[in-house]
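not sure who needs this but someone in the group chat was asking about LysM domain-containing protein from Candidatus Woesebacteria bacterium RIFOXYD1_FULL_41_28 so here u go. i didnt clean anything up, its just raw.
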Amino acid sequence: MEKNLEFILEVWEEIKTFFFELANFILKSLHISFLKLEERKGVVVTALYRKRGKLSRTLSHSGMAAITTLGVMLAPLIAQEFPGKAVNPWEISAAPSVLSASTDDPGIDTQISSKVRDSIIDYEVQSGDTVTLIADKFGISADTIRWENDLTRDTIKVGKTLKILPMTGVAHTVVKGDTVYSIAKKYDADVQAIVDFPFNTFTNDETFELAIGQTIIVPEGVMPVVSATPRQRQMTPNAGTVTASGQFVWPTQGTITQRFSWYHPGLDIANRSLPPVVAADSGRVIYAGWDASGYGYMVLVDHGNGYKTRYAHLSQIMVISGQTIGRGAAVGKVGNTGRSTGPHLHFEIYLNGVRVNPLGYLK
Protein backbone atom coordinates (compact mmCIF):
# COMPACT_ATOMS: atom_id res chain seq x y z
CA MET A 1 0.00 0.00 0.00
CA GLU A 2 2.78 2.39 0.92
CA LYS A 3 4.70 1.55 -2.28
CA ASN A 4 1.65 2.36 -4.40
CA LEU A 5 1.26 5.72 -2.66
CA GLU A 6 4.93 6.56 -3.21
CA PHE A 7 4.59 5.62 -6.88
CA ILE A 8 1.57 7.89 -7.32
CA LEU A 9 3.39 10.81 -5.69
CA GLU A 10 6.43 10.33 -7.94
CA VAL A 11 4.23 10.27 -11.05
CA TRP A 12 2.41 13.43 -9.87
CA GLU A 13 5.70 15.27 -9.38
CA GLU A 14 6.87 14.28 -12.87
CA ILE A 15 3.59 15.48 -14.40
CA LYS A 16 3.91 18.84 -12.63
CA THR A 17 7.50 19.20 -13.84
CA PHE A 18 6.46 18.36 -17.41
CA PHE A 19 3.72 20.99 -17.58
CA PHE A 20 5.97 23.59 -15.94
CA GLU A 21 8.69 23.06 -18.55
CA LEU A 22 6.08 23.04 -21.35
CA ALA A 23 4.71 26.40 -20.21
CA ASN A 24 8.21 27.89 -20.15
CA PHE A 25 8.87 26.60 -23.66
CA ILE A 26 5.65 28.09 -25.03
CA LEU A 27 6.31 31.49 -23.44
CA LYS A 28 9.86 31.60 -24.79
CA SER A 29 8.67 30.61 -28.28
CA LEU A 30 6.01 33.33 -28.28
CA HIS A 31 8.52 35.90 -27.12
CA ILE A 32 10.94 35.01 -29.93
CA SER A 33 8.08 35.09 -32.49
CA PHE A 34 7.00 38.56 -31.37
CA LEU A 35 10.54 39.85 -31.66
CA LYS A 36 10.83 38.53 -35.22
CA LEU A 37 7.42 40.02 -36.08
CA GLU A 38 8.54 43.43 -34.86
CA GLU A 39 11.65 43.24 -37.02
CA ARG A 40 9.69 42.24 -40.15
CA LYS A 41 6.97 44.85 -39.45
CA GLY A 42 9.60 47.54 -39.38
CA VAL A 43 10.91 46.46 -42.80
CA VAL A 44 7.38 46.45 -44.31
CA VAL A 45 6.46 49.87 -42.84
CA THR A 46 9.71 51.37 -44.13
CA ALA A 47 9.06 50.02 -47.63
CA LEU A 48 5.50 51.36 -47.71
CA TYR A 49 6.62 54.74 -46.43
CA ARG A 50 9.20 55.01 -49.22
CA LYS A 51 6.58 54.09 -51.88
CA ARG A 52 3.71 56.10 -50.39
CA GLY A 53 3.46 58.43 -53.43
CA LYS A 54 3.23 55.60 -55.94
CA LEU A 55 0.71 53.56 -53.96
CA SER A 56 -1.58 56.37 -52.73
CA ARG A 57 -3.63 56.65 -55.93
CA THR A 58 -3.99 52.87 -56.21
CA LEU A 59 -5.08 52.50 -52.59
CA SER A 60 -7.56 55.41 -52.70
CA HIS A 61 -9.16 54.20 -55.94
CA SER A 62 -9.41 50.67 -54.63
CA GLY A 63 -11.02 51.91 -51.39
CA MET A 64 -13.62 54.02 -53.19
CA ALA A 65 -14.47 51.15 -55.52
CA ALA A 66 -14.95 48.83 -52.56
CA ILE A 67 -17.24 51.31 -50.74
CA THR A 68 -19.34 51.90 -53.88
CA THR A 69 -19.73 48.18 -54.49
CA LEU A 70 -20.78 47.63 -50.88
CA GLY A 71 -23.37 50.42 -51.10
CA VAL A 72 -24.94 49.02 -54.27
CA MET A 73 -25.19 45.58 -52.72
CA LEU A 74 -26.74 46.76 -49.44
CA ALA A 75 -29.15 49.43 -50.79
CA PRO A 76 -32.03 47.02 -51.67
CA LEU A 77 -31.78 45.37 -48.28
CA ILE A 78 -31.93 48.72 -46.46
CA ALA A 79 -34.91 49.86 -48.53
CA GLN A 80 -36.86 46.72 -47.64
CA GLU A 81 -36.01 46.99 -43.96
CA PHE A 82 -36.96 50.69 -43.67
CA PRO A 83 -39.76 51.44 -46.17
CA GLY A 84 -40.75 55.08 -46.70
CA LYS A 85 -42.21 57.46 -49.20
CA ALA A 86 -40.67 59.48 -51.95
CA VAL A 87 -39.43 62.87 -50.84
CA ASN A 88 -39.30 65.95 -53.00
CA PRO A 89 -36.22 67.86 -51.81
CA TRP A 90 -37.66 71.13 -53.14
CA GLU A 91 -40.89 70.81 -51.19
CA ILE A 92 -40.94 72.75 -47.88
CA SER A 93 -43.25 71.07 -45.42
CA ALA A 94 -45.05 72.91 -42.65
CA ALA A 95 -43.85 72.48 -39.10
CA PRO A 96 -45.49 69.45 -37.50
CA SER A 97 -48.13 70.07 -34.86
CA VAL A 98 -49.14 67.84 -31.98
CA LEU A 99 -52.83 66.99 -32.22
CA SER A 100 -53.02 64.97 -29.04
CA ALA A 101 -50.82 63.38 -26.47
CA SER A 102 -51.27 60.96 -23.65
CA THR A 103 -49.15 59.29 -21.04
CA ASP A 104 -49.53 56.37 -18.73
CA ASP A 105 -46.87 57.69 -16.38
CA PRO A 106 -48.57 58.03 -12.97
CA GLY A 107 -45.80 60.35 -11.82
CA ILE A 108 -47.01 63.17 -14.06
CA ASP A 109 -49.54 65.50 -12.47
CA THR A 110 -50.71 69.09 -12.66
CA GLN A 111 -48.82 71.62 -10.59
CA ILE A 112 -50.61 74.72 -9.26
CA SER A 113 -48.89 77.81 -10.55
CA SER A 114 -47.02 79.84 -7.97
CA LYS A 115 -47.78 83.03 -9.92
CA VAL A 116 -49.69 85.63 -7.94
CA ARG A 117 -53.42 85.51 -8.67
CA ASP A 118 -55.03 88.61 -10.10
CA SER A 119 -58.23 88.63 -8.08
CA ILE A 120 -60.11 87.45 -5.01
CA ILE A 121 -61.52 83.96 -5.50
CA ASP A 122 -64.23 81.90 -3.80
CA TYR A 123 -63.37 78.73 -1.92
CA GLU A 124 -65.90 76.22 -0.60
CA VAL A 125 -64.90 74.76 2.76
CA GLN A 126 -64.25 71.02 2.61
CA SER A 127 -64.48 68.42 5.36
CA GLY A 128 -61.52 68.72 7.72
CA ASP A 129 -60.68 72.27 6.65
CA THR A 130 -59.61 74.88 9.18
CA VAL A 131 -58.61 78.48 8.61
CA THR A 132 -54.97 77.55 9.13
CA LEU A 133 -55.08 74.64 6.66
CA ILE A 134 -56.79 76.76 4.00
CA ALA A 135 -54.26 79.54 4.54
CA ASP A 136 -51.40 77.08 4.03
CA LYS A 137 -53.09 75.74 0.89
CA PHE A 138 -53.19 79.19 -0.71
CA GLY A 139 -49.93 80.49 0.74
CA ILE A 140 -51.43 83.37 2.71
CA SER A 141 -51.78 84.15 6.41
CA ALA A 142 -54.67 82.84 8.50
CA ASP A 143 -55.45 86.40 9.62
CA THR A 144 -55.92 87.41 5.98
CA ILE A 145 -58.72 84.86 5.68
CA ARG A 146 -60.24 85.83 9.04
CA TRP A 147 -60.27 89.54 8.20
CA GLU A 148 -61.77 89.09 4.75
CA ASN A 149 -64.49 86.70 5.97
CA ASP A 150 -65.16 88.14 9.45
CA LEU A 151 -64.23 84.89 11.21
CA THR A 152 -63.67 84.58 14.95
CA ARG A 153 -62.63 80.94 15.21
CA ASP A 154 -60.35 78.53 13.38
CA THR A 155 -63.01 75.89 12.71
CA ILE A 156 -65.54 76.65 9.97
CA LYS A 157 -68.67 75.01 8.64
CA VAL A 158 -68.34 72.64 5.68
CA GLY A 159 -69.85 74.16 2.54
CA LYS A 160 -69.28 77.75 3.61
CA THR A 161 -67.87 79.94 0.84
CA LEU A 162 -64.81 81.96 1.77
CA LYS A 163 -63.21 84.86 -0.03
CA ILE A 164 -59.50 84.16 -0.64
CA LEU A 165 -57.17 87.06 -1.35
CA PRO A 166 -54.35 86.61 -3.85
CA MET A 167 -51.74 87.28 -1.16
CA THR A 168 -51.32 88.04 2.52
CA GLY A 169 -52.82 91.39 3.40
CA VAL A 170 -56.13 93.23 3.33
CA ALA A 171 -58.69 94.00 0.64
CA HIS A 172 -59.94 97.60 0.81
CA THR A 173 -62.97 99.03 -0.95
CA VAL A 174 -62.24 102.61 -1.97
CA VAL A 175 -64.52 105.33 -0.58
CA LYS A 176 -64.60 109.05 -1.22
CA GLY A 177 -61.41 110.75 -0.05
CA ASP A 178 -59.25 107.62 -0.10
CA THR A 179 -55.73 107.79 -1.50
CA VAL A 180 -53.01 105.17 -1.64
CA TYR A 181 -51.30 107.10 1.16
CA SER A 182 -54.33 107.12 3.47
CA ILE A 183 -54.99 103.43 2.75
CA ALA A 184 -51.38 102.51 3.49
CA LYS A 185 -51.52 104.43 6.77
CA LYS A 186 -54.81 102.82 7.78
CA TYR A 187 -53.49 99.28 7.32
CA ASP A 188 -49.91 99.96 8.45
CA ALA A 189 -48.63 99.04 4.98
CA ASP A 190 -46.10 100.32 2.47
CA VAL A 191 -47.40 102.73 -0.18
CA GLN A 192 -44.95 101.38 -2.74
CA ALA A 193 -46.20 97.82 -2.16
CA ILE A 194 -49.75 98.93 -2.98
CA VAL A 195 -48.61 100.72 -6.12
CA ASP A 196 -46.37 97.85 -7.22
CA PHE A 197 -48.99 95.13 -6.79
CA PRO A 198 -49.49 94.20 -10.47
CA PHE A 199 -53.28 93.95 -10.38
CA ASN A 200 -54.08 97.19 -8.55
CA THR A 201 -55.33 99.67 -11.15
CA PHE A 202 -55.49 103.46 -11.02
CA THR A 203 -57.51 106.02 -12.94
CA ASN A 204 -54.29 107.99 -13.30
CA ASP A 205 -51.04 106.03 -13.33
CA GLU A 206 -48.99 109.12 -12.56
CA THR A 207 -50.91 110.36 -9.51
CA PHE A 208 -52.28 106.92 -8.49
CA GLU A 209 -55.85 108.18 -8.28
CA LEU A 210 -58.46 105.62 -7.29
CA ALA A 211 -62.05 105.05 -8.36
CA ILE A 212 -64.73 105.00 -5.69
CA GLY A 213 -65.98 101.45 -5.18
CA GLN A 214 -62.96 99.65 -6.59
CA THR A 215 -61.16 97.02 -4.53
CA ILE A 216 -57.50 97.54 -3.72
CA ILE A 217 -55.23 94.80 -2.41
CA VAL A 218 -53.00 96.03 0.40
CA PRO A 219 -50.01 93.64 0.51
CA GLU A 220 -48.96 92.73 4.07
CA GLY A 221 -51.61 95.10 5.41
CA VAL A 222 -52.97 94.62 8.94
CA MET A 223 -56.56 95.23 9.92
CA PRO A 224 -56.65 98.28 12.20
CA VAL A 225 -57.16 97.80 15.91
CA VAL A 226 -60.62 98.58 17.20
CA SER A 227 -60.12 101.21 19.87
CA ALA A 228 -63.54 102.62 20.54
CA THR A 229 -63.81 103.94 24.08
CA PRO A 230 -65.81 101.47 26.16
CA ARG A 231 -68.06 102.33 29.00
CA GLN A 232 -65.70 102.37 31.96
CA ARG A 233 -66.96 103.05 35.44
CA GLN A 234 -66.91 101.23 38.73
CA MET A 235 -70.00 99.07 38.64
CA THR A 236 -68.57 96.36 40.88
CA PRO A 237 -68.07 97.71 44.42
CA ASN A 238 -64.89 97.36 46.42
CA ALA A 239 -64.85 93.98 48.16
CA GLY A 240 -62.83 95.11 51.16
CA THR A 241 -60.30 92.66 52.54
CA VAL A 242 -60.11 89.58 50.35
CA THR A 243 -58.07 86.40 50.38
CA ALA A 244 -57.50 84.33 47.28
CA SER A 245 -58.58 80.70 47.48
CA GLY A 246 -56.12 79.40 44.90
CA GLN A 247 -59.06 77.90 43.02
CA PHE A 248 -60.03 79.53 39.71
CA VAL A 249 -63.55 79.67 38.27
CA TRP A 250 -64.27 80.11 34.57
CA PRO A 251 -64.15 83.84 33.77
CA THR A 252 -66.96 83.77 31.18
CA GLN A 253 -69.19 81.57 29.06
CA GLY A 254 -68.56 80.74 25.42
CA THR A 255 -66.61 78.56 23.05
CA ILE A 256 -62.87 77.97 23.29
CA THR A 257 -61.48 79.10 19.94
CA GLN A 258 -57.78 79.01 20.73
CA ARG A 259 -55.93 77.12 23.43
CA PHE A 260 -52.72 77.81 25.30
CA SER A 261 -49.46 77.31 23.38
CA TRP A 262 -45.94 78.70 23.27
CA TYR A 263 -47.02 81.29 20.69
CA HIS A 264 -50.42 81.98 22.29
CA PRO A 265 -49.92 82.04 26.07
CA GLY A 266 -53.57 82.22 27.02
CA LEU A 267 -57.08 80.94 26.43
CA ASP A 268 -59.54 82.51 23.94
CA ILE A 269 -63.24 82.17 24.76
CA ALA A 270 -65.56 83.54 22.06
CA ASN A 271 -69.13 84.70 22.58
CA ARG A 272 -70.94 87.12 20.25
CA SER A 273 -73.53 87.95 22.90
CA LEU A 274 -70.83 89.78 24.91
CA PRO A 275 -71.57 88.22 28.33
CA PRO A 276 -70.02 89.44 31.60
CA VAL A 277 -66.44 88.56 32.48
CA VAL A 278 -65.82 87.70 36.14
CA ALA A 279 -62.73 87.50 38.32
CA ALA A 280 -61.43 83.92 38.39
CA ASP A 281 -60.36 84.39 42.04
CA SER A 282 -60.36 87.12 44.68
CA GLY A 283 -57.68 89.79 44.52
CA ARG A 284 -56.78 93.41 43.86
CA VAL A 285 -57.16 95.15 40.49
CA ILE A 286 -53.72 96.46 39.56
CA TYR A 287 -54.66 97.72 36.08
CA ALA A 288 -57.91 98.57 34.31
CA GLY A 289 -57.82 100.38 30.99
CA TRP A 290 -56.38 100.44 27.48
CA ASP A 291 -53.33 98.37 26.51
CA ALA A 292 -51.58 99.50 23.33
CA SER A 293 -49.64 96.25 22.79
CA GLY A 294 -52.72 94.48 21.40
CA TYR A 295 -54.79 93.45 24.44
CA GLY A 296 -57.17 96.37 23.94
CA TYR A 297 -59.23 97.19 27.01
CA MET A 298 -58.19 94.84 29.78
CA VAL A 299 -58.12 94.19 33.50
CA LEU A 300 -55.18 92.73 35.45
CA VAL A 301 -55.80 91.24 38.91
CA ASP A 302 -53.16 90.35 41.50
CA HIS A 303 -54.38 87.55 43.77
CA GLY A 304 -51.63 88.00 46.34
CA ASN A 305 -50.49 84.37 46.37
CA GLY A 306 -48.13 84.38 43.40
CA TYR A 307 -51.00 84.30 40.90
CA LYS A 308 -52.21 87.05 38.57
CA THR A 309 -54.95 86.93 35.92
CA ARG A 310 -55.48 89.01 32.79
CA TYR A 311 -58.83 89.67 31.05
CA ALA A 312 -58.32 91.22 27.59
CA HIS A 313 -60.26 92.59 24.57
CA LEU A 314 -63.10 93.80 26.81
CA SER A 315 -65.94 95.94 25.47
CA GLN A 316 -66.75 97.29 28.92
CA ILE A 317 -64.73 97.65 32.13
CA MET A 318 -66.60 97.50 35.46
CA VAL A 319 -63.75 97.97 37.93
CA ILE A 320 -61.06 100.54 38.61
CA SER A 321 -57.39 100.16 39.38
CA GLY A 322 -56.66 99.70 43.10
CA GLN A 323 -59.98 98.23 44.21
CA THR A 324 -60.41 94.74 45.61
CA ILE A 325 -62.70 92.20 44.04
CA GLY A 326 -64.17 88.87 45.09
CA ARG A 327 -64.09 85.65 43.13
CA GLY A 328 -66.93 85.59 40.58
CA ALA A 329 -67.50 89.37 40.64
CA ALA A 330 -67.77 91.13 37.26
CA VAL A 331 -64.70 92.90 35.90
CA GLY A 332 -66.18 93.74 32.48
CA LYS A 333 -67.79 92.30 29.35
CA VAL A 334 -66.50 90.27 26.42
CA GLY A 335 -65.45 92.51 23.53
CA ASN A 336 -63.45 92.91 20.35
CA THR A 337 -60.96 95.64 21.21
CA GLY A 338 -57.24 95.60 20.54
CA ARG A 339 -55.72 93.15 18.09
CA SER A 340 -58.77 90.95 17.83
CA THR A 341 -60.63 89.28 14.98
CA GLY A 342 -63.96 88.87 16.75
CA PRO A 343 -65.75 89.13 20.11
CA HIS A 344 -63.89 87.00 22.64
CA LEU A 345 -62.10 87.03 25.99
CA HIS A 346 -58.38 86.44 26.05
CA PHE A 347 -57.65 85.01 29.51
CA GLU A 348 -54.21 84.48 31.05
CA ILE A 349 -52.96 83.10 34.36
CA TYR A 350 -49.52 84.03 35.71
CA LEU A 351 -47.71 82.02 38.39
CA ASN A 352 -44.73 83.87 39.83
CA GLY A 353 -44.52 85.97 36.68
CA VAL A 354 -44.72 83.05 34.24
CA ARG A 355 -47.82 82.45 32.11
CA VAL A 356 -49.28 78.97 32.57
CA ASN A 357 -52.01 76.99 30.82
CA PRO A 358 -55.37 78.13 32.28
CA LEU A 359 -56.98 74.76 31.53
CA GLY A 360 -54.79 73.23 34.22
CA TYR A 361 -56.24 75.57 36.88
CA LEU A 362 -59.86 76.33 35.98
CA LYS A 363 -62.56 74.43 37.87
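also The longest helix spans residues 2-50. if thats useful
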